[in-house]
Write a structure and sequence with these properties.
Two copies of one chain form a homodimer. The first copy, chain A, contains 21 helices and two strands. With about 325 residues, chain A is mainly alpha-helical. Chain A folds into four domains: about 90 residues, Annexin (Annexin V, domain 1, Orthogonal Bundle); about 70 residues, Annexin (Annexin V, domain 1), CATH 1.10.220.10; about 80 residues, Annexin (Annexin V, domain 1, Orthogonal Bundle), CATH 1.10.220.10; about 70 residues, Annexin (Annexin V, domain 1). Chain A has a two-stranded antiparallel ribbon with strand order 1-2. The radius of gyration of chain A is 21 Å and the shape is globular. In chain A, about 45% of the residues are buried. Chains A and B meet through helix 9, helix 10, helix 11 and helix 13 of A and helix 9, helix 10, helix 11 and helix 13 of B.
């Protein structure tokens, strides 16, 4: 998570209290008649994933119960369901690979359409190779079968094949680009899109084995050689679901920040807010590339992502998201 | 490597000398006019992979050079080429994931036929999921590209697809078997073999995503439902190379010990010995399942694997292999 250290928005205090101290303060916050939610936000919202890991471990050791169990029982409910605040804090407190394994599993249990599979594309294409492997390991531990097996039983062909290859990828992670290869593979992609064979074996192979720098060069080559961007050509191929998923995979590989700008934007525009998507975008990217997402948001909409979030949320939920975005509450 | 602790043949002394002590003795063994090869064998041949790892680290620290470099320069040459002894000791001393990444790379650089791809099938199908991931990581570190990319450029379709899916697998690793699934997937396999479509997408999917216990149940179901074993049906499909590789993949998933019995047997029968294969089989399995391989060898040939190795090798090479097999020298 080297990139995350520079591109995340969370604000870890210069002098970080010991995990033991954090645990005691968290436990105290739950003691009163009303949980001191602000204190929970101030502590957990300002610790990075390795600090949260230590807090989870020490909490288990000190109080002999998992921290997430306490959060589940003690953070305020919204009538009978988990409030958005509660869901966000729990998601943020979990181990990131376990969190993503759970998100993937939840998305696979939805049967209609393909939009919900967006989460799996995000995990497969907008993560480091190491994180993706960790998610697959966590999935096996949690669900008694592999992520690949659940994709196989829940997603039909030809999308199944693309998803399977993307989640099984372990890309080379340094900047090595072969210009000739970019050129020839741009041609392969263009021909497949022209023939409306978006999930052709060769397309799947290119997207699931090449390193991301190589792929960015390939997409750039595509634009230069064929006038349109690969996104434009996919969109005008009129292939419906395939079109949506392939475009998404390429976007998450090429410029994940642009994808997450779309997720945040869609969650906040219009009447009501899609809190689950908003939470997912901010919780999963706050210590990865939220700086880039914020810059890109401003770039596209000439307005602030932070203000959009503030304008569309309220209470503890708003305060927690603002904290993850690096703001003061 | 839980299984390895019970099923390996190497003999680690009850009181293991400290890694620092081992390093000093190794360095002394190289000091004299002639390297004391027996001492090298006695030390390195009787340490498990985590002990060898510590020895490599401490050696680097004490003498400011990698242990494998010393082995390369100081162990006796065989005229101008590396002797079999030297190759075996170096292979044994390397980190197992690095060793397998190197074996995979070497096999991909051979262009003719498909026999050499056997090594990749072994790594993909006869390893734990964790080891396979570690090999992919080591491959990226060593070769500036992923194992998958090198398979893509060096192996042609349809074999490429099978290999890619097998090396990308991360199987669930506990004993969970669904009898209905075994039944229905045995049918899928049988139909594909009957139609001579050995690398059909469904076949590849089953072999690369199901856990090994499930697959064993599927192969057993196959035998019960169709009279022949899946091996017999593949062999009589008359599909040449495809037949060879598919049978191998299934064998390495189902009963890797039987595959390695074949490797050892082929290396020692007839005139001359295929030392590279013999070394690979013994070095890669000595702390994994060599006990099982030995038992299976006796079962099939009514003679001892150890005696076969002793009868076909000599000198330090023989002594080293015998040591890995748990014998005294």
């Amino acid at each position: 998570m080297e990139e995350g250290e520079k591109m995340g928005t969370i604000r870890v205090p210069k002098i970080v209290p010991s995990p033991g101290n954090d645990c005691k303060k968290i436990e105290e916050a739950f003691r009163g008649w009303r949980t001191d939610t602000k204190e929970i936000i101030r502590i957990l919202g300002c610790r990075n994933s390795s600090q949260r890991k230590k807090i989870r471990e020490i909490y288990q050791h000190l109080y002999n119960k998992p921290l997430t169990d306490t959060l589940k029982s003690k953070l305020p409910h919204d009538y009978l369901v988990f409030s958005d605040f509660k869901k966000a804090v729990i998601m943020w407190t979990m181990d990131p690979s376990e969190r993503d394994a759970k998100l993937a599993n939840k998305s696979l249990r939805k049967k209609k359409g393909v939009d919900h599979l967006q989460v799996i594309i995000e995990i497969a294409c907008a993560s480091t190779p190491e994180h993706l492997i960790a998610v697959r390991q966590a999935y096996c531990s949690l669900y008694n079968c592999s992520l690949e097996e659940d994709i196989t039983s829940n997603v039909s062909l030809p999308l199944r094949k693309l998803l399977l290859c993307l989640v099984s990828s372990y890309r080379y992670n340094r900047e090595v680009v072969d210009a000739n290869l970019a050129h020839s593979e741009a041609t392969v992609l263009q021909e497949a899109i022209e023939k409306k064979k978006l999930y052709h074996d060769e397309v799947v192979l290119i997207l699931s084995t090449r390193n991301k720098h190589q792929l960015k060069a390939t997409f750039e080559c595509y634009r230069q050689n064929y006038g349109n961007s690969i996104y434009q050509d996919i969109e005008s191929s009129g292939t419906g679901n395939s079109e949506y998923i392939l475009r998404l995979a390429i976007l998450c590989i090429d410029t994940p920040e642009k994808h997450f700008v779309e997720v945040v934007r869609k969650s906040v525009v219009g009447l009501g807010t899609d809190e689950d998507s908003l939470t997912r975008a901010i919780v999963t990217r706050a210590e990865v590339d939220m700086m880039k997402i914020r810059a890109e948001y401003f770039n596209i909409y000439k307005s602030s992502l932070d203000n959009a979030v503030i304008g569309d949320t309220s209470g503890d939920y708003k305060d927690f998201l603002v904290t993850l975005l690096g703001g003061k509450i």
